[in-house]
Design the sequence.
């Protein structure tokens, strides 16, 4: 069955960096766009970025453009989100999702940015 | 960016009730809209794709209609497991955007 498992969430100081991973299984990862979405505590959902199946199309929302980088390793069925210059308002549960339309989601990983 | 407004923000209902949630897009998104359900401390789960298509395995009491800028989502005969928060998501134009959510709780 389809599985997405995020990892890498941690407590980090403002200005710090973190790399999230999302391990995919149960489907042909290299055929799908993949997305990152986050949810701040008690808040709604914010779509952050997507990457096409072969890397040639990438999009970021304004709040993370220039600070976050999405990438993928199709040989290892893994999606990544490299985050730099983290701010307190980046504190959230970060989800990876299959497709640009999020037809399947992982369980999320918590990123806490605090001094 | 396309803004998604969703109403109501919350509603109280009883088991067996029929409820309707609406999402309005700030510009035409065709049928590029999904409806998702989220339970506390859980990841969202896709219920409806392309505005009106039921995801495999989702009970038929869930339905949705709409295109362009106005969309509706209905649960016909609420079940105890349906008390949750529901979001719409437009994926017509990046950045993709979510509605703010509708929390359905027990009356």
Sequence:
């Amino acid at each position: 069955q389809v599985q997405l498992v995020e990892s890498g969430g941690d407590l980090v100081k403002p200005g710090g960096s973190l790399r999230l991973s999302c391990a995919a299984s149960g489907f042909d990862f290299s055929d799908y766009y993949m997305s990152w979405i986050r949810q701040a505590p008690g808040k709604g959902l914010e779509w952050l970025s997507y990457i096409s199946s072969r890397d040639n199309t990438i999009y970021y929302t304004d709040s993370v453009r220039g600070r976050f980088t999405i990438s993928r390793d199709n040989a290892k069925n893994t999606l990544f989100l490299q985050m730099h210059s983290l701010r307190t308002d980046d504190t959230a549960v970060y989800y990876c999702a299959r497709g640009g339309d999020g037809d399947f989601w992982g369980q999320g990983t918590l990123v806490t940015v605090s001094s | 960016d396309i803004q998604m407004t969703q109403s109501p923000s919350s509603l109280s209902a009883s088991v067996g009730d029929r409820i309707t949630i609406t999402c309005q897009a700030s510009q035409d998104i065709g049928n590029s809209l999904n409806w998702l359900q989220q339970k506390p401390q859980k990841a969202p789960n896709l219920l409806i794709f392309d505005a009106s298509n039921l995801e495999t395995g989702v009970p038929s009491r869930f339905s949705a209609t709409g295109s362009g800028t106005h969309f509706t989502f209905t649960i016909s005969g609420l079940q105890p497991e349906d008390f949750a928060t529901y979001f719409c998501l437009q994926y017509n134009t990046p950045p993709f955007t979510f509605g703010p959510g509708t929390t359905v709780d027990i009356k």
